[in-house]
Amino acid sequence: MNEVIPFTKMHGCGNDYVYFDAIRDDLPSSRVVAKWAPAISDRHTGIGADGVIVLGSSSKADVRMRMFNADGSESEMCGNGIRCLAKLAYDHGHVRGPTIEVETRAGVLSVTLEKNGKRCIGATVSMGLPRLTPAEVPVVHDGEGPRLNIALRLGPDRLRLIAVGMGNPHAVCFVDDPERFAVTTIGPRIERDPMFPKRTNVEFVSRLKDENGIPVLRQRTWERGSGETQACGTGACATVVAAIISGVITGRSAIVRLNGGDLRITWPSASEAVIMSGPAITVFNGVWTAR
Fold first, then answer.
1. Which of 5, 122, 171, 205 has the greatest count of CB atoms below 10 A from its CB?
2. What CATH fold (topology level) applies to the domain 3-128+279-290?
3. Which of 78, 120, 173, 237 is catalytic?
4. Any idea which architecture 149-272 has in CATH?
5. Which part of the chain is CATH 3.10.310.10?
6. Does residue 232 have an active-site annotation?
7. For residue 1, is pLDDT > 50?
8. Averaged over 270-290, what is the pLDDT?
9. Rounded to whole angstroms, how far apart are CA atoms 170 and 156?
């Protein structure tokens, strides 16, 4: 028998996911949801998304987030996804806000809702400390300390990467022009390079002119399990951390310009959490017929 399950399509800077509310609606096991993810995410024959996110109950926090990439693999965290999940929890009456604790596979994170009247339009997330040792990222590398510089040769191409963990692995690559860079060719090769035992997200970044005294970083992202996406929140955090520790920017805050919009990222000090602010948008509601 087919199951008909309500969903909400949401996005943060174009990084879009299909959300199921397991607090309100009966869902099958996470294993089944993971099997649905590729069909749901397909932009020609499905709903179309970068993946699937499940809002659930938690014994450790106000709510719980489970995230499945477009290929069905489960990820630890999603910066754009957690903002939208917090909005969904608020919109469905599960939380009152303004601050919500969300359990993720990367730990419990604090989300503060941004409202226009009673309507939630975005959020600020305390993303935790960046992971800056090989075991924490993880990456197979003999370097230690705050600068995980990696030289990677891919055929004739020699790239310099900075590995940063934001609850999920990232490899930040500063390039002259992300618009012309072969993101869709080089990205998947780095994602699956053996030095990244859990695969990795990859950010291709350059510095633009400051705006109102604030550094601007242009970022394109190849996301592990989903391909190039319009935005990546954890990737934007990793990019700013990498820019600070490598001297690309001298302050502690930047605007990260993504394909789908801007995120404001601040890393106040090496001993403090990275802070991310950005929009959370509901696109439409519908029902998914599981076969």
1. 171
2. Diaminopimelate Epimerase; Chain A, domain 1 (3.10.310)
3. 78
4. Roll (3.10)
5. 3-128+279-290, 149-272
6. yes
7. no
8. 96
9. 23
